[in-house]
Amino acid sequence: MRRTGGLRLLAAVAAATVTASVSACGGSEARSDDGPARRTAAGSRTTPSARSGPDPVVALVRRMSTADKVGQLFIPTVQGTTASAGAAMVEQYHPGGVIYFPNNFRTARQTATLSNGLQRAAMKSRVPLLIGTDEEQGIVSRLPYITRFPTNKALASTKNPDDDVRTAARVTGEELRAVGINQDFAPVADVNVNPRNPVIGVRSFGADPQKVAHLVGVAVDAYRATGVVATAKHFPGHGDTATDSHTGLPVIKHSMATWERLDAPPFKTAIAHHVDMIMTAHIVVPGLDASGDPATMSKTVLTGLLREKLGYDGVVVTDSLSMAGATIKYGAPEAAVRAVRAGADMLLMPPSLSSAYRAVLAAVRSGRIPQSRLDQAVTRILRMKQERGLFRSPYVDASQAPRIVGSAEHRTAARRVAAHVRSGR
């Protein structure tokens, strides 16, 4: 794929990144054989008016080729525990991010080395990667060596849930960041009011919308403080369904009034706490959009409700496009196109990256996806990467990862939280 000379402006982006607080992983520059010098940082959301001079992100987007911009929309999986296969994919498609699963993990140092290798491939074009995973703790945990914490439902049941949720998110974020994972697809913001829910359940903080909202805000703040991108999921709310969107297309019969009372509060709180990303749900909510389209492909839901009504201007990412809920109506490539048209900025795990990439690129070139919609999405993605310090320091010190992951302090914190859950204190 041809790259434009405009990508060299990323040096300016690096120089212009916002001042960031140092995470608990360590603030001094470190160097190891596994990666260049790095500084782990947690940026805060800023606006272009807070910067002096031209906005380097906007200037970069203007100079990027359409092919490069389309690549930034995708978050595919990677193969193996070494960087070779993933690096080749990164160099070919220039995706905005990747997602790890258990097959990518052996040890903390190996993961950090893998992350550095993928970032090295991405930085050949000077655009760092989001490297994410689903580390919710509890029943959805990907890293075999991470310090363990109970489910969100269990954390919410203690006498001091704020402290326990904050501790779990802080320790998790610090350990993810140590191995080069700069994005977590957490926290779950669904209000689980259906006891037959086969997919959310104990992943939720509970059935009380206000309590769930409050704890989502606590978790978002804690993740962001470690330098990890937080992702509230699954908008507009997956808590009242008896169908798993991995295997079918759930229909939730909430009216707009019910949605406002029950599902919206956690997402409103996440937005108020400057959540970096919000993930869509592959669910149909006729009370919000009568078209019958899944929320992931609904402009009424993603643009009208999330952007315009709730005022969210961060990155919108789809849930996995490999799930039946995403593909059952339109098929995977068309689902990717419709999601971008609806207002999604990033496309997670298409079953075929090449097919989905070609479909989106063709839709942009034909005008079906307006160039302005593509530029809007890419600007949000690059802005988020800038604000989280990734242009300045995409690498981690792999030699330090085993010291941080499973540290004595982290294990003590986890035992304390587990004792609170057992005793109800």
From TrEMBL:
<dbReference type="InterPro" id="IPR050226">
    <property type="entry name" value="NagZ_Beta-hexosaminidase"/>
</dbReference>
<dbReference type="InterPro" id="IPR001764">
    <property type="entry name" value="Glyco_hydro_3_N"/>
</dbReference>
<dbReference type="Pfam" id="PF00933">
    <property type="entry name" value="Glyco_hydro_3"/>
</dbReference>
<feature type="signal peptide">
    <location>
        <begin position="1"/>
        <end position="24"/>
    </location>
</feature>
<keyword id="KW-0732">Signal</keyword>
<keyword id="KW-0378">Hydrolase</keyword>
<feature type="domain" description="Glycoside hydrolase family 3 N-terminal">
    <location>
        <begin position="67"/>
        <end position="383"/>
    </location>
</feature>
<dbReference type="InterPro" id="IPR017853">
    <property type="entry name" value="GH"/>
</dbReference>
<comment type="similarity">
    <text>Belongs to the glycosyl hydrolase 3 family.</text>
</comment>
<feature type="region of interest" description="Disordered">
    <location>
        <begin position="24"/>
        <end position="55"/>
    </location>
</feature>
<protein>
    <recommendedName>
        <fullName>beta-N-acetylhexosaminidase</fullName>
        <ecNumber>3.2.1.52</ecNumber>
    </recommendedName>
</protein>
<dbReference type="InterPro" id="IPR019800">
    <property type="entry name" value="Glyco_hydro_3_AS"/>
</dbReference>
<dbReference type="InterPro" id="IPR036962">
    <property type="entry name" value="Glyco_hydro_3_N_sf"/>
</dbReference>
<keyword id="KW-0326">Glycosidase</keyword>
